[in-house]
Amino acid sequence: MARILGIGIATIDIINHVSHYPAEDEEMRALSQQQVRGGNATNTLVVLSQLQHDCHWCGVLINEADSAIVEQDLQRYHIKYQHCQRFNQGKMPTSYITLSEATGSRSIVHYRDCPELPFAHFSQLDLSGFDWLHFEGRNIDELSQMLQWVKLNYPALRCSLEVEKPREGIETLFDLADVLMFSRPYAESRGFQRADDFLHSLSYQALMTCTWGNHGAWLKQDGIVSHSPSFPPPRVVDTLGAGDTFNAGLISALVNGQPARAALEQACRLAGHKCGQAGFANLNELL
Ligand code: ADP
Ligand code: FRU
Questions:
Q1: Residue 92 φ/ψ, nearest 5 degrees
Q2: Class of domain 3-9+40-89+115-286 (CATH, top level)
Q3: pLDDT category of residue 286 using cuts at 50, 70 and 90
Q4: What's the pLDDT at 285?
């Protein structure tokens, strides 16, 4: 069991389950609706916790009614959140998600009116007991200070960085992490149509992965690029958080000392399994 701190967001996900994705200007009725906790970092922690790790979250909680949804879910998965910063102003970030039963695809409209986590808060934490830090690639100026702070004060502490969206200046963080987890949208934003071409173009020291939906994921380690296929479930039910689940599978395997290629395959297996079910519960059963 490793002690892992995730730094990133929690959201309120309002998920409309629909039979098919609507056309523009169509009116349709949802089959059902759920309001649940979401957010990349906390999704990853929820999976890591089920893989028997001691998980902690550092992010922003707003003192408002919807925070209860987040807190109850974190408690359910034994994730400690005393390292969070609480604010009175704003609203928990909210995602309006259309989940198509026909394909399992998820389309997300995200709205936020919530302060980002400041470095001044992060720098107060005692990180000495942690084995791994996982950062969401957002809030670049503050995150840059956080990563530099960790390198300076805790040089042996391993850090992973999720790079999901192109954000101005995000590339300045890439030399500061031990593991870089890229997404297809990020690779495409850099002009690449293939994950392997994208990884070949990079020369950072970090171990790097790039996920590509049902095509699986690629890894670059010591200059060599390798691939794991995806592991499709009998029926694709829910791809929301597939990437967050992949990240959890990868971190878990690496922190447990597995070789990177085995970690890549485990991450794809876990993410594929998740796509066959709704939500993130019972993901420990696979392992
Ligand atoms: P995100 O949730 O960030 O959009 P991806 O769609 O790239 O993430 O998926 C992450 C990983 O999840 C992929 O590398 C793959 O292993 C797995 N995955 C995603 N979609 C499917 C699918 N339809 N079938 C099987 N595995 C999938
Ligand atoms: C899935 C997810 C959702 C959240 C959105 C935030 O990866 O974390 O739970 O609403 O992405 O961008």
A1: -60, 135
A2: alpha beta
A3: low
A4: 75
Average pLDDT on 253-274 reads 98
pLDDT by residue (tens digit) across 102-125?
998 999 999 999 999 999 999 999
> Of the ligands numbered here, which is closest to the C-alpha atom of 264?
1
How far apart (Å, rounded) are the C-alpha atoms in residues 284 and 287?
A: 6
Does 214 score more than 70 pLDDT? yes
In this structure, are residues 89 and 115 in contact, taking their beta carbons and an 8 Å threshold?
Answer: yes
Cross-strand bridge partners of residue 34: 15
* pLDDT 10s digits, 38-60: 999 999 999 999 999 999 999 99
pTM score above 0.90 = yes
Q: If we measure between CA atoms, which residue out of 58, 185, 76 comes closest to residue 130?
A: 58
Q: Find, among 131, 3, 119, 109, the residue nearest to 55 by Cα.
A: 3
DSSP 199: H
Residue 239 Cα, ligand 1 centroid: separation in angstroms?
7
Structure tokens at 265: 């395959």
Going from the C-alpha of 70 to that of each of 140, 169, 224, the distances in angstroms are: 24, 30, 40
- Out of 240, 246, 274, give the residue to mutate to test ligand 2, the one with the largest number of ligand atoms within 8 Å of its CB: 240
Domain ranges of the chain: 3-9+40-89+115-286
